[in-house]
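User: Please fill in residues for this 71-position structure.
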C-alpha cells in the first residue's frame, strides 16, 4: 500500500495546477488519480486498525493514545 501511495502520489501534483487552464483530458486524468489514491490509503488505515484491534494493547500504551488522537 505504501509503494502504491508513493507511485500515485507522484502523479497527483497536477491537480494543484487548476489555475493554469489545463486541458480537459489532463484535468480528468489528475482528478481520477486523486480519487484512486484513496484506495491504498484506506487499505493502509484499515490495516492499522485491524492490527490494533487484534493485538493486546494496554490503555497505558502511548501508541494507543497517539492512534486514537490521530483518528
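Assistant: Residues filled in for all 71 positions:
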Amino acid at each position: 500500500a505504501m509503494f502504491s501511495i508513493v507511485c500515485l502520489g507522484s502523479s497527483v501534483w497536477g491537480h494543484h495546477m487548476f489555475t493554469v487552464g489545463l486541458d480537459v483530458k489532463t484535468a480528468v486524468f489528475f482528478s481520477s488519480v486523486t480519487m484512486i489514491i484513496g484506495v491504498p490509503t484506506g487499505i493502509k488505515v484499515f490495516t492499522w486498525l485491524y492490527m490494533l484491534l487484534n493485538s493486546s494493547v494496554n490503555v497505558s500504551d502511548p501508541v494507543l493514545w497517539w492512534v486514537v488522537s490521530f483518528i
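For context: The mean pLDDT is 80.
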